[in-house]
Amino acid sequence: MTHTSVTDTSAASAPCDLLVIAAGVVTVDGNNTIHRPGAIAVSGEKIVAVGAPDDLMRTYSPQKRIDRPACWIFPGLINTHNHLWQTMLKGLGDDMGLIDWIRTLLVPTMPLIDDEAAYLGSALGALESARSGCTTMLDFMHHFPRLSLYDETIRAWDEIGGSLVMGRSVRDNVQTTTAGYAADLTLDQQLAHVEALLERHGRDRVWVAPGTVWGMSVDGLKQVRAFADRLGALITIHMNEVPFDSEESVRRFGMRSVPLLASIGFLNEDVLHAHGVWNDDEDIRLLAKHRCAVSYNPVSNMYLGSGIPPILKMRDAGVRLSLATDGAASNNSQDMIEALKLGALLQKVAHKDSTAMSAPEILRMATVGGSDALQRPDVGHLAPDMRADFFLFDPRTARSTPLHDPISTLVYAGGEQNVVTTVAAGRVVLEDGVITGVNEADLLAQAQDAAARLAEKVRALA
Ligand SMILES: [Zn+2]
Predict the structure, then answer these.
(1) Residue 453 has what DSSP assignment?
(2) CA of 371 to the centre of ligand 1 (A)
(3) How far is CA 107 from the centre of its chain?
(4) pTM for the full model?
(5) Are 417 and 397 in contact (CB under 8 A)?
(6) For 69-111, how does the pLDDT look when each residue is reduced to its tens digit (9 = 90+)?
(7) Gap from CA of 211 to ligand 1 centroid (Å)
(8) φ and ψ at residue 325, rounded to 5 degrees
(9) Would you say the C-alpha torsion 442, 447, 448, 454 has a positive or negative sign?
(10) Ligand 1 centre from 424 Cα, in Å?
(11) Given CB 3.0 to 4.6 Å as the disulfide criterion, which of 224, 247, 277, 285 pairs with 309?
(12) Could you give the CA distance from residue 270 to residue 259 in angstroms, rounded to a whole number?
């Protein structure tokens, strides 16, 4: 009952590139419209119509047609915090708290990352994203003096498909992470590199990303703010992931991290904070006042034992929220469908209240919330003129059957195994379970070899 075919184009009028017919389309639009059955027509990178299959079949003559009458179409998920290179460290950081994990895993490994490791880490992340229905990713790429790593990360992602937004990390107040390099770059040089990337790839794809407040000087933070204002660049920063963040800020600057940023005019709606686990009431008030966004990383927060972010308090105060996986070295996967489930459950258990967060709310956070956090109004829900970013979810597995409500099934009973086809900007990047842009088996074998060699070097340093 599943087939892909080229249709007879003689009967219909308007040409389009792709027509997908499904059991339903969950649009996550402003009215939570679900078309049952549903169809999407795509031309180029954009959706041209969403609606009833009969209507779209009458109206459009597609170059390619995908008939999946048992599958549900969802908007591509938006992952707003990741570190793709860390995919190569997956499984090496188990059972450590954040600061130990940074000191014993991250810091010694960073000088060992070469072009191949950056490429393969990004490629692995892109493969898993396509397979978990994620079509837009904000990658917080740490500061590496080896500038080719940034290009390799973008190249690998683009080969597989989807939209990669790179937050190019900068810092001027910690020396540890580049201790293994012969020479580091000044903040001016780092920002010049961000500017070069911005010129090459555009504002939608390149952000400036101070690592943490305590990894920066106050002058450096002001310089980043001025840089963002001058170029219209967006900003992302780690914030209050663990108590150390604000404790260190108090020690160095006499203020917690969020109030410090507020006091120097850094906070604005162009700033996306990763984590916010230890945001206190005053932090939340300031984030809401300045219309900041926060990414919720439930799996990473659990994995590192960082804590439970006050998501409901932030939501109720008006902080803009999105969902993320964080890097694979503090998650061990980049499965946004897993983040949907655990993100909802973690809030239910935190509040001992089964209504604390519903399946539709967490799905909205991972789609519309991501669009808002990334200031990308062209993605996040399914409607004409939106980017054609969506995935087909086949519920015919023991885990996911029976289906009554597609959103409930996706969030609580779904997984990567249900994602059969993913379309990103009109390009079919996963088709009937097969990655189209690269040879996946070869890539996995290369990544396993390279990661094993890397782990050997890390062990030798211990
Ligand atoms: Zn992070």
Answers:
(1) H
(2) 19
(3) 23
(4) 0.95
(5) yes
(6) 999 999 999 999 999 999 998 888 788 887 887 887 888 888 8
(7) 8
(8) -100, -25
(9) positive
(10) 24
(11) 277
(12) 17
